[in-house]
């Protein structure tokens, strides 16, 4: 029922955090049933304190390098 509203909020927060809209988000947004849980999972990963923030950032950079992410 509120899927369109949730997708709009996800776009707003992603744009605020990244400074622009990114293609993978636009692609996944066509399937709100996938996007909404994916966004919740991402928020949960950011909030956890089990791993140091610097280590999380390093892992993100390494993963992006492995898949040759241009962003």
Itemize the secondary structure elements and their pairings:
Blueprint: H1 3-18, H2 23-28, H3 32-47, H4 53-66
Helix pairs in contact: 1-3
Largest sheet properties = none
**Into how many domains do the coordinates divide?**
1
Low-confidence parts = none
Percentage of helical residues?
Answer: over 70%
Please, could you describe this protein's structure?
The protein is mostly helical. The chain has one domain (3-66). Helix content is 73%, strand content 0%. It has four helices and no strands. It has helices spanning 3-18, 23-28, 32-47, 53-66. The longest helix is centred in the first third of the chain and has 16 residues, at 3-18. It starts with a helix and ends in a 5-residue tail after the last helix. The relative contact order is 0.10. The mean pLDDT is 87.
What labels would you give this structure?
single chain; 71 residues; mainly alpha; 4 helices
Short recap of the structure:
This protein is an all-alpha fold. It has helices spanning 3-18, 23-28, 32-47, 53-66.
